[in-house]
Amino acid sequence: MSCVSQSTGQIQCKVFDSLLNLNSTLQATRALMVIGILLGLIAIFVSTIGMKCMKCLEDDEVQKMWMAVIGGIIFIISGLATLVATAWYGNRIVQEFYDPMTPVNARYEFGQALFTGWAAASLCLLGGALLSCSCPRKTTSYPTPRPYPKPTPSSGKDY
Question: What are the alphabetically sorted keywords of the record (predicted)?
């Protein structure tokens, strides 16, 4: 909505006729959020293929792990897009709040959607980092298992 306050204290609001009529920062943050959501959906599908419990690609374990890593990288990109959008909009709110030219009744404060965006961005970044840490190793560094020594048969006189 576009609101105008008059000197008498009345506020007149008008609904935006078009999304193209919005501020350029609002259009950019909306685009970043849509990109972040779409990349998040793609990351879910790609990383699901790379899970160990899935039957897809079960014959090639290395390729399965690489699918999880690629899903994690896409999650990180999605989280960065979401973080940039929410931080940019939060910065805009702070600048307009402390601007002396902004009327008092037209000042915004941080809302629940902004906090939800920051939480979603941090969870996407954390999940992507955890998935990206599952890089396949070329050689295993595990020691070869040694069997336990077999006990010697007792003669019955061990008491």
Answer: Cell junction, Cell membrane, Membrane, Tight junction, Transmembrane, Transmembrane helix
pLDDT tens across 20-37, in order? Answer: 677 888 889 999 999 999
Q: Residue 6 and residue 12: Cα distance in Å, rounded? A: 8
Number of H helices, E strands in the chain: 3, 2
Distance CA 102, CA 92 (A): 12
CATH number of 24-133: 1.20.140.150
Rounded to whole angstroms, the Cα distance separating 121 from 127 reads 10
Distance CA 10, CA 110 (A): 25
How many CA atoms lie within 13 Å of 70's alpha carbon, on the beta-carbon side?
12
Coil, strand, or helix at residue 7?
coil
Per-residue pLDDT tens for 136-157? Answer: 666 555 566 666 676 666 666 6
Token reading at 79: 């989280």
